[in-house]
Amino acid sequence: MRLSIVASKNSKSFRMIKSTYENKKNTSKIVENLGTLAELKEKLNLSTEEEVVAWAQRYVKEATIEEKEKHRQIIVSYSPTKQIPYDEQRMYNGGYLFLQKIYKELGLPKICREISKNYKFTYDLDSILSRLVYSRIIFPASKLATMELSKKFIQEPKFELNHIYRGLEVICKESDFIQSELYKNSLKISKRNSGVLYYDLTNFFFELEEADESEGLRQYGVSKENRPNPIVQMGLMLDGDGIPLAFCIERGNKNEQSMFFVKWKCSKN
Description:
Blueprint: E1 2-7, E2 12-22, E3 25-36, H1 37-44, H2 49-71, H3 96-105, H4 108-116, H5 125-138, H6 143-150, H7 161-173, H8 175-189, E4 198-205, E5 231-238, E6 244-251, H9 256-268
Helix pairs in contact: 3-5, 4-5, 5-6
């Protein structure tokens, strides 16, 4: 780029121009109008034309150097015979970053902070919950496999395997609070279609010969797979767009209709 000074009858204009090659022709285009001589004198508090020209030349030179830095090529040399050090991590999973944006928009970090205030644990509940969510979507696996997958994220987990199991107990206890806050926060992101609600129920069986005690979750009930095993029921409520509103886990012998009203109350709160 270079400085161009255009003189007219009553003033001089300073411009930064750049030579380009377009449509098989050499041409010049104005990159920036710096101003007239009078404007620059007043703006820069300069008294003579020579001082304005010197400033303009420095300005153009610095802009040229900055542009070259942005477009300069970087050559990296690789050795085909150099061995990769053993047990050194060189690959990272960055796919979770797209999920992280949604996770934060739903206010889950704040929810985890609110829950943590009521307990005395020292592990990072937000780190645990976020990794469980990301891993469930990217590559569903066991808790141990989720821990190993989390180590490949750009941001390493701030917990150990035993913290996951401890954190799940807290998440279970605070399930209603989490769902309620998630619903409120989701309204800030998108309008919920609550004109029509969908409700579905499924159950999970356990390879047990006997059910839990009367207050336990694993009870004999109507199995979806017609198995004679104790089951646990899970109810899920969706809005008109198929986006979850709330869920609940109940005993295997509980009436499905009563579960619906519990879920409706949870989603409304």
